[in-house]
Structure formats: structure tokens, C-alpha cells
Amino acid sequence: MGLVNSYGSLIACRLLLGAFESGLAPGVIFYLSSWYKGCELSWRVSIFFSGITLAGAFGGVFAYGITKMAGVGGQEGWRWIFYLEGIVTVVVGALGFFLINDFPSDRPKFLTESECKRVMTRLQIDARTEDSEDFSWNQV
Major facilitator superfamily (MFS) profile domain spans which residues (predicted)? Predict the structure, then answer.
């Protein structure tokens, strides 16, 4: 987005970003649900959404500081926001490929066979107890 030269190309890039980013939150929650029981999941999801909130809160301050780079390399300050945040995103994405573990059913490298079975047993027991719960509007 730092390389766009027209409003139309900026809108196209933002639409593409939204399309690619739209699966992030559901994907993270799905991934976490494959490792933690239902009663453990809410804490992890709240940490995830708190991180999103903090990123939004400090993102503006960070962007303000970056815009002070106006003129560096002959570029406007707003372009530097996209350059720097884009570089960080690409680096973290590349690291994620190596750091995010497989699902427990795929026997991740960092678990022994017995630990993997224990994780799977915990999740299967939790899945059975969740099926037996009845829906209640009072709980809603």
C-alpha cells in the first residue's frame, strides 16, 4: 500500500488486505480450540482479543511517530507506515511458519507420544461433556 499512486489502487489494496485478513481471528480461535478444553479456551481467547485492543490503542501512536519520517528516502511519512508495518508482518509471518506447532492429532515434534495421547484424551473427554449440555435461554 505504500507504493500506490491513486485512490483506486489504495482501495483495491485495502480490499485485498481485508479479504486475506478476514480469516485470522476465526483461525486463531480454531487453532486454540484444538489444544485447550472449553473451560480453558475463554482465557486464551480473551488474551488474544486484549492483544488486538492494545495493538489498536498503540497503533495510532506508533503511526504518528512513523509519519515523522517524512522525507526520509524521498518518501512521504504515510508511506513509511505501510513499509515498516508491512516488513514486520512479513517477518512475523515467515517466523510463524516455523514456530506454530501442528495440531495435537498430527503428533507435534515437541510432544512425546504419551503427552500427545494425554492432550487428545483431554480434548475428547471435554468434547463428550460439551455434547451433553442443554441449551438454556437463561444462560444467554
Answer: 1-140
- What is the distance in angstroms between the CA of the first residue and the CA of the last residue of the chain? 42
What phi and psi values does residue 108 have, to the nearest 5 degrees? Answer: -60, 155
Q: At CA 92, angle to CA 109 and CA 24, rounded to 5? A: 85
Say whether 140 sits in a helix, a strand or coil. coil
Q: Residue 137 domain-assigned?
A: no
| pLDDT tens by residue, the chain, 140 residues | 889 999 999 999 999 999 999 999 999 999 998 889 888 999 999 999 999 999 999 999 999 999 999 889 888 999 999 999 999 999 999 999 888 887 887 878 888 888 888 888 888 888 876 555 677 788 77
pTM, to two decimals = 0.73
H helix or E strand, kind and range, residue 80: helix 77-99
The total of structural domains in the chain comes to 1
Residue 44 lies in a domain: yes
Q: Which domain holds residue 111?
A: 39-128
